[in-house]
TrEMBL record:
Domain Brix intervals: 66-178
Classification via SUPFAM superfamilies: Class II aaRS ABD-related (SSF52954)
Superkingdom of the organism of origin: Eukaryota
UniProt protein name: Ribosome biogenesis protein BRX1 homolog
Compartment annotation: Nucleus, Nucleolus
Functional summary from the UniProt entry: Required for biogenesis of the 60S ribosomal subunit.
Sequence similarity: Belongs to the BRX1 family.
Keyword vocabulary terms for this entry: Nucleus, Ribosome biogenesis
Presence of keyword Nucleus: yes
Gene Ontology CC terms, in alphabetical order: nucleolus
InterPro entries the record matches: Brix (IPR007109), BRX1 (IPR026532)
Renumbered residue ranges of the record's region Disordered: 1-60
Main location: nucleus
Amino acid sequence: MGAMDAAHVVDEATGQASATISGETGRKKRKRKRDEVETAETLSRSIANSGEPAPLKKPKKWKNKQRVLVFCARGITYRCRHLVNDLKILMPHSRTDSKLDRKDKLPVINEICEMKNCTKCMFFEMRKKKDIYMWVSNVPDGPSAKFLVENVHTMNELKLTGNCLKGSRPLLSFDPVR
């Protein structure tokens, strides 16, 4: 391929700068305003001459980067697996991982969450093929809670009527049973 030739032209009437690139493929024109060209050149010269650091960027809009790792141990039943899949569908900020071996200890979960860049964790385990336990934890060094899941209903069994959005973040509230 041949070398590309570039020419910069500033139109005095409109104040627009155009860069014309010609080569084997044809001509392309890109127009920029004259002010943008001058400020970019002036800024690059002033930084190079003064040795000062670049000006600070605008602060970006805050994004919630909290992610939840949802996974389970080996040896769970199909109903528990459907529960885990339903939770993954309902929480758009969730991450998944392969099943954890039973012989692994619970501190391994913290390492898995750090590798997946997650700040929260939901872990399901089954004991004696009948009791489902759900661990909920704040990963780095936060509290953890262990719940016994008494009943499982999948989303296919429920009608889910109401004003719920599928992609919204779920709220968890503990109300006393009366």
